[in-house]
């Protein structure tokens, strides 16, 4: 990993480099995605089946596109029972965490005849996209479905690609069943996003689409936004470790590599006040790379988007961390809890040397669907709030409206909205 002393110019260059990984820069793929979505919107199932045959080599049709109960039972038989038990343990933690996020409707009345409030209503149908290409992620199945279930969503539809034999990864199906998916369909890519956004004879239209995916999925989600809601347009994974001289270099190196192995566009950054730590972390990374299975991917990731940044003090290190706004932020310092109070921008914050990032990916409970590419400055992790709608509730009696009705009329007329003013005035015609 390259080591850089922090300057304003260095940070500006790094932020510019990081933004190159954004799905907003994938213009070369947009025309293809637009055409796929147009075909699905106009031709429905026929287009979905054609693209599934073309891309996944699976001869999909109306009779086999939906995963059956028999297939789910077979998935349990084919999944290591120990893994099934781990999925169930993780599920308990994720459910407990997200249950605490639930909000209730509220109403506030006063003696003058008014009632104001907020009605919280879960969405009716949500679509969950689960990738199935280079790697499979049953953990993401849990992270997407559990908050929707906690919110009270009535119907959860999941799509995921099958192999050429029409088989979905067994662990993914087990996770979907355990988490509470109502229906699972064997469709992937932009065509699956289009099917859930527009609806076909086989795959129902949903109110919101969540879940990670490749470039085609990310661009398709962006294109259908407005027809449906989406969670976010996820970019490549990233980790930032904020460390001082007390950090264990072996732990820090291992944690940086845990994200670099996702893909060539992943980012791993260490910000430290200690040159000695920086040198030792680089040495540990070199040692780990000799044995890790995804070495080629990791090396490309580190060459392009890996940095060790040397800060003159912890204040500069924290300022830089807030500027980068990383998806995952580990704080490994003498007093991580104090440093955490200074952090404004991060998707998930991990405190101390035993809170490594994979703990959050799999087991602790908080969601691992997180804002990337600096969007932690204004986005939050996926949660229960993403699956509910809030409606304002307003009630005024005549007695409550009377003393303020002329104020409203004046306000409306100042904006030249005479029909607005009239809708208030007619209720007091007899008094004029």
Automatic annotation (TrEMBL):
The active site is at 327 (proton acceptor), 328 (proton acceptor). It is an enzyme of class 1 (oxidoreductase). It comes from the Bacteria. Belongs to the histidinol dehydrogenase family. Binds 1 zinc ion per subunit. Substrate binds at residues 237, 259, 262, 328, 361, 415, 420. This is Histidinol dehydrogenase. It comes from Lactonifactor longoviformis DSM 17459. One of its GO terms (cellular component) is cytosol. Catalyzes the sequential NAD-dependent oxidations of L-histidinol to L-histidinaldehyde and then to L-histidine. Its cofactor is Zn(2+).
């Amino acid at each position: 990993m390259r080591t850089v002393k922090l300057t304003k110019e260095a940070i500006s260059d790094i932020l510019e480099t990081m933004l190159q990984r954004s799905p907003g820069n994938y213009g070369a793929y947009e025309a293809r995605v637009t055409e796929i979505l147009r075909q699905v919107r106009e031709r429905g199932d026929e287009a979905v089946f054609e693209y599934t045959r073309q891309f996944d080599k699976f001869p999909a049709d109306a009779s086999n596109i939906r995963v059956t109960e028999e297939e789910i039972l077979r998935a349990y038989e084919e999944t290591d029972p120990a893994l099934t038990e781990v999925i169930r343990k993780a599920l308990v933690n994720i459910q407990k965490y997200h249950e605490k996020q639930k909000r209730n409707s509220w109403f506030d009345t006063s003696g003058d005849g008014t009632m104001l409030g907020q009605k919280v209503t879960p969405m009716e149908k949500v679509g969950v996209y689960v990738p199935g290409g280079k790697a499979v992620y049953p953990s993401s199945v849990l992270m997407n479905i559990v908050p929707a279930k906690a919110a009270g969503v009535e119907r959860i539809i999941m799509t995921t690609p099958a192999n050429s034999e029409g088989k979905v990864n067994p662990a993914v199906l087990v996770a979907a069943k355990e988490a509470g998916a109502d229906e699972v369909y064997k469709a992937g890519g932009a065509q699956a996003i289009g099917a859930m956004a527009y609806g076909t004879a086989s795959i129902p239209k949903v109110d919101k689409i969540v879940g990670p995916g490749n470039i085609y999925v990310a661009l398709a989600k962006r294109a259908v936004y407005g027809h449906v809601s989406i969670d976010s347009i996820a970019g490549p994974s990233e980790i930032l470790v904020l460390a001082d001289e007390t950090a264990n270099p072996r732990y820090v190196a291992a944690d940086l590599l845990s994200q670099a192995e996702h893909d060539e566009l992943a980012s791993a950054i260490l910000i430290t006040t200690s040159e000695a730590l920086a040198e030792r972390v680089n040495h540990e990374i070199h040692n780990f790379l000799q044995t890790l299975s995804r070495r080629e991917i990791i090396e490309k990731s580190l060459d392009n988007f890996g940095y060790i940044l040397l800060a003159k003090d912890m204040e500069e290190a924290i300022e830089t961390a807030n500027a980068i706004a990383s998806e995952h932020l580990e704080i490994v310092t003498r007093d991580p809890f104090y440093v955490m109070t200074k952090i404004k921008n991060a998707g998930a914050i991990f405190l101390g040397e035993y809170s490594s990032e994979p703990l959050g990916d799999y087991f602790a409970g908080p969601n691992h669907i997180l804002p990337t590419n600096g969007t932690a400055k204004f986005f939050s992790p996926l949660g229960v709030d993403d699956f509910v709608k809030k409606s304002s509730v307003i009630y005024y009696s005549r007695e409550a409206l009377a003393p303020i009705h002329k104020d409203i009329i004046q306000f409306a007329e100042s904006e030249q909205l005479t029909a607005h003013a009239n809708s208030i005035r007619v209720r007091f015609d007899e008094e004029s």
